[in-house]
Amino acid sequence: LKLFWQMQGAHLNPNSITFVNVLMACASLADLGLGKQIHACIVETGFEPHVFVGNALIDMYSKCGSIKHARQVFNKMPARDVVSW
Hints:
By secondary structure, the chain is mostly helical. It contains 5 helices and no strands. The longest helix has 14 residues, at 16-29.
């Protein structure tokens, strides 16, 4: 997570893989607040429609105990795969 914030500070653009890994770290820490911050970054950078980013968001929100937010992400996903379901 520290590396992600250093990347942000250096104005390096994260990609979808970066976001998936950062969301996995948030889920492991059960840090809902940080997960929401990362979600905001995802929206700002346009990666929200990516199915694997959506799946990582659902996973993070679920593991942080926010099923409501997980469901909102699921409902907004333009495409879903077997992992999404």
